[in-house]
User: What shape does this take?
Amino acid sequence: MARITDQNKVDRLKQSTMKLVVAHGFGGASAALIAKDARVASGYFYRHYKGKYEMVNAILQEVYQEVFNKFGEFIKEDSSFPGSIEKMIRYFVGIANSEPIKVKFLYVLTNDYNFVIDDEIRSKNLRFIETIRNIGVASGCLDEELGVDDLYLILFIMTIQFINQKYKYADQEQITEADINHLLSILQKFLK
Amino acid sequence: MARITDQNKVDRLKQSTMKLVVAHGFGGASAALIAKDARVASGYFYRHYKGKYEMVNAILQEVYQEVFNKFGEFIKEDSSFPGSIEKMIRYFVGIANSEPIKVKFLYVLTNDYNFVIDDEIRSKNLRFIETIRNIGVASGCLDEELGVDDLYLILFIMTIQFINQKYKYADQEQITEADINHLLSILQKFLK
Amino acid sequence: MARITDQNKVDRLKQSTMKLVVAHGFGGASAALIAKDARVASGYFYRHYKGKYEMVNAILQEVYQEVFNKFGEFIKEDSSFPGSIEKMIRYFVGIANSEPIKVKFLYVLTNDYNFVIDDEIRSKNLRFIETIRNIGVASGCLDEELGVDDLYLILFIMTIQFINQKYKYADQEQITEADINHLLSILQKFLK
Amino acid sequence: MARITDQNKVDRLKQSTMKLVVAHGFGGASAALIAKDARVASGYFYRHYKGKYEMVNAILQEVYQEVFNKFGEFIKEDSSFPGSIEKMIRYFVGIANSEPIKVKFLYVLTNDYNFVIDDEIRSKNLRFIETIRNIGVASGCLDEELGVDDLYLILFIMTIQFINQKYKYADQEQITEADINHLLSILQKFLK
DNA sequence: GATGAATGAGGCTTCATTCAT
DNA sequence: AATGAATGAAGCCTCATTCAT
Assistant: This one.
């Protein structure tokens, strides 16, 4: 009967939100600015989210989930530890090169005490890491001293930090094949 | 005497600023809130800083400088590469345990695209890292594939991330000796 | 059948409007809230009313008319002054006990400078009061010093205020027989 | 050291608030409109009140208190029941003639389910009424059937309603001596 | 120097209303 | 006829900043 929710609008909203939170911080990314950038009405997003914080947080959790779900797939696909790791990193860099804003968005909010990964999502992510850890330890590719949190730090956080270091201080917009190989070589050091 | 009072005020202001920026983000830490927490008049800090952003940024650069100056001292004191590394990490964890707010503050603003290390400070910091890198490479302890940025990432960023992971997700308030050793063992991996 | 559904909707709308205007005031009773409460689409009532104000006002006038029309009937039915008065009061209390929201709605909007009884309705109402006044004066039951406005005040306003005093401050939901008799005894004092 | 709160501003704020709440209702009296009318900054009143509702409610309670405190004085001054009553009514009408907005404000919010007299103030007011009731009953001037609530209704509510009836429907701006006498003659009826 | 009262731009959010379906 | 997605003006309120004291 009535119009159907325009998915394009919601998508534009998400893109603009990520972009402006990165550019101006959560506080600096005003609702009006976001709405304008997304070409939607200023009060539009309240139909989809309870408020600005809720919107940003929801998008953040979505992105987390997207990334880690893919990680989960790689683990299932390929039981080799180094292979899985490389796939994960390459996938992540792929996102960085196709949707840099997403990786910047993760970079910014990952270090914010007001944004915490949802318990449920975090548990699921940690289970993925646990799985890959088991594979690594079993195949002798991974130092068994390294716990799940360590792996999370090395694989996920380090990669984000590596990529954003290029963005923030090297004014580099694309992550090259050389960068990937360099990163992989660093990570491998840590893992064994 | 007047200057002593004044210095206390400025110190309280810095502490409150770091605390509230961590707790509520830059945007959420209002000048009034900070002033109240510091037991200082709301218009007080304009005598010392041009505005809120300038104050936060100035404090951030100070903290950077404080940390890296100490790093510089360690390098001069002890020419052994692994020794310097350990001293740096232990010093950093020392700050975390005596002034956790400082390390949280670094954690938060380090990943903010609106706060960039001043060029001058950054250069100086990189020179310190360069020095230690040279020592490492010369002594055969360090893979010469690892550049200055890599070392920055590994020594500085990784340590911050490691500590804040404990704060944010493990509800841990103190970094224990075991934690330090674990961190050191991880970091040592990239040494030859 | 379609018309029946429609009438139900309109009725639900009126009920919800009265309820929410009482509970949150005119401004606080949002169109969306009313529509939701009435299980009706938010744009529905624009087919029946020009806007929110017009809807509320129309309902108010309807309720006025409903009450006073009944008053008119009582006057015609029974020419005794005290009998008419009692019938009116009992009728009004009857509404209060079966549809308290209506009497609360009148209570709230009766004292609002933005809602004025329509001239036409007011004239008609005053004519009823005039009629009963004549009967009262003629039968010696009513002090002839009391004008139409006085009678309106004593019979209508006082009764509304009496009932709502019970609702608002005595947390009483039903008006008892004792209350009615008490009210009647007070009103009678005024009239003679 | 700093400026001292300008009492004129606060007073203008109160006047404008009452005026605009009467004219447009609580919801229609926007913060911006009130501030503009009071010639203060739009965010000014948040330094004195938690929000718009709190401001309006605080002013309402003040006005209640002002009126009833005066009532209390009259009761103490003059122990004659009819004398006290007359003084109260004349005082109230005096307010109506010098500050009509106050009586209109009471009229409007007295019938709002969102504004309730503070328990403390209400108790005090009822104690005054109780005192005068006792005097009335003791002196044989008052039917002991009439309770405190009845007296509140008759003396306070009826007077407010009487006065506002003149304002709202008779376009009368001043309450005349004749009006007062008429009102008094009505009120005297419930005396024995 | 220090205070905090006051400002008013701008933030977040709500809401009456419209209109494509 | 009815729906509810979408709008954007306007509401409430916060806040960085100024400045009289």
Observations:
- Chains A and D do not touch (no CB pair under 8 Å).
- The first helix of chain A runs from residue 7 to 28.
- Chain A has eight helices and no strands.
